[in-house]
Amino acid sequence: QVQLVESGGGLVQAGGSLRLSCAASGIIFRINAMGWYRQAPGKRRDMVATITSGGSTNYADSVKGRFTISRDNAKNTVYLQMNSLKPEDTAVYYCNAATTIAAMRSSGSWGQGTQVTVSS
Q1: Is there a smaller number of Cβ atoms within 10 Å at the N or the C end of the chain?
Q2: Strand bridging mode 57-59 / 3-7
Q3: Is the dihedral of CA 10, 104, 63, 91 positive or negative?
Q4: How would residue 30 be classed by pLDDT, with cut points 50, 70 and 90?
């Protein structure tokens, strides 16, 4: 019954920045991992970044050094700071929450997605 609502997407020029937010509500007591995935048209939904309740982070190679995931447990919110954006970052970005990182794709809760478009 975890509900996730993403915000912060939009249109930005290459080299620009965006900050995505994901607010969690509902029954979240067992949630230990949250993350961001993205899906471009005709492509697989791929992991972008994850973070555990303990603060451990993991990033896809394609965004390493450009994106930063963070959390604010008091606000039940996870963020994705995206810098030096490239046109290939264009996708719908989805927030995910699960008991473990390994369980995200298969059994995690998903947000509705927010569109990020990077123009060249």
Answers
A1: N
A2: unpaired
A3: negative
A4: confident
3-class DSSP state for residue 69? strand
Matching residue, tokens 């607010």: 23
Whose CA is closest to 90, among 112, 110, 62, 64?
62
Extract the tokens encoding 54.
């303990």
pLDDT at position 66, please?
98
Chain-centroid distance of CA 50 in Å reads 7
Whose CA is closest to 93, among 11, 7, 25, 26? 7
Rounded to 5°, angle at Cα 52 from 107 and 59: 90
Q: Provide φ and ψ at 107, rounded to 5°.
A: -135, 5
Per-residue burial over 74-102, b if 16 or more Cβ lie within 10 Å, else e, is eebbbbbebeebeeebbbbbbbbbbeebe
